[in-house]
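ok trying this again, last paste got cut off
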Amino acid sequence: MHFDASGIIHAWDEYPIANFPKFWEWIETQIKANACSISQVALEEVEHKYEDCAKWLKDKGIRRVGLTNEILLEADKIKELLEIDEESYGSGVDEKDLLIIASAKLESDVLLTQEARQVIDPNRKKKNFKIPAVCGLPEVNVSHRNVREWIQSSTTTFG
């Protein structure tokens, strides 16, 4: 699982460690098994909102994906696909989101994002697509889940 800031922040908000220790032990186990990663860009967003969450992730040894030329090139391809001219972003993804999507794509990993789903409407400007809609484009093709879907797909019982 490759974390977007919105996904891990949602988990931190909705499932506090003090109340859901088994859930966080499960995430820690996945981090230690190298099954979870986060782009440096997303980690900085988490740190900006919740320093303690970012510290927890770092302390547990989450694999951090730094910016590479390959990620930058992939983000540029997605930006072009969305018909975003220079810095003229719409109401959808921004530059950081593109880097996060690109890193998930190149990591061949499922992206954990809490952003709302959108129906892909061919009449809607692509630059207004949120992360799930961008991931769903055939040219991007990145699987994604929200926190509830991630928990359900794990078949783990927390109790």
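PB: full thing came through this time. The chain has a mean pLDDT of 94.
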